[in-house]
Amino acid sequence: MDTAENRKHVLILSGGRIDPEFARDYLKDKHYDLIISADSGIDFCRQAELMPDVILGDFDSASPQAMAFYKGECPERIETFPARKDWTDTELAVRKALEAGAGQITVLGATGTRLDHVLGNIQLLKQALDAGAECVLVDAHNRIRMTDRSLILQKKEQFGTYVSLIPFTPQVTGLTLRGFSYDVDQAVLESGRTLGISNEICREEAKIDLESGILLVMESRD
């Protein structure tokens, strides 16, 4: 059976802000079946001495030094796109990951000071969800994912202190939370409201159930 668990785990290094110390520690001892660098993600790859399997983008923000290095080392892995295109470099990377058979996608460099790109990258979680893949955006302070089904969070594995649930669809109905500071039964989350922000896990295991809709699950720390 082809499930997310038995498909490839793909790492995408995108062109947003990557904290080098956090990223090196986060990637330590993790295995990825495919590494994709998008645009200036190659700058971190160069610093961290990573050799991506695919290097793609329009490279308008990649450093000339990193570009020169990878052109010399692995020109066959580079896919260059025009700056005027319909998709961002990160979307090109997500599409490439899904085409390669990704069941899990981890994206570093999806956040930063360009909030338009941050919101666009959050939208890409829906593309992965529709394809049956699990996708997370990770930075030094946040882990962001999307779900349309039950989710269990282990306290020992949580990312930071806070868990915020934000409706991606106009409504999320039948929301039931167990193991949180604020448990609820059959609640409704609606767009335009802040209900669901800054909850905390208070037991060893916390469970999120919902009947309809799509949730953004954001684990954060200050």
What is the number of E strands? 13
User: What's the mean pLDDT score?
Assistant: 96
Q: Element order, helices and strands?
A: EHEHEHEHEHEEEEEEEE
Principal-axes geometry comes out as elongated
Distance between the termini: 40 Å
Which bin fits the share of residues in helices? Answer: 10-25%
Please report which band the strand proportion falls in: under 5%, 5-15%, 15-25%, 25-35%, 35-45% or over 45%.
25-35%
Return residue spans where pLDDT drops below 50 for at least 5 consecutive residues. Answer: none
Rg is 18 Å
* Strands side by side in the biggest sheet: 4-3-2-1-5-6-7-13-9
Helix tally equals 5
> Mind summarizing the main beta sheet?
9 strands, mixed
Secondary-structure content class: alpha/beta
Describe the fold and architecture.
With 222 residues, the protein is an alpha/beta fold. It is 24% helix and 32% strand. The protein has 5 helices and 13 strands. The protein has helices at residues 20-27, 41-48, 64-73, 89-99, 115-130; strands spanning 8-13, 34-38, 54-57, 78-80, 102-108, 134-138, 142-147, 151-154, 162-167, 171-178, 184-190, 205-209, 215-220. Strands 4-3-2-1-5-6-7-13-9 form a 9-stranded mixed beta sheet, sandwiched between helices. The protein has a 4-stranded antiparallel beta sheet with strand order 8-12-10-11, with no helix packed on it. The chain is elongated, with a radius of gyration of 18 Å. The chain starts with 7 loop residues before the first strand and ends with a strand.
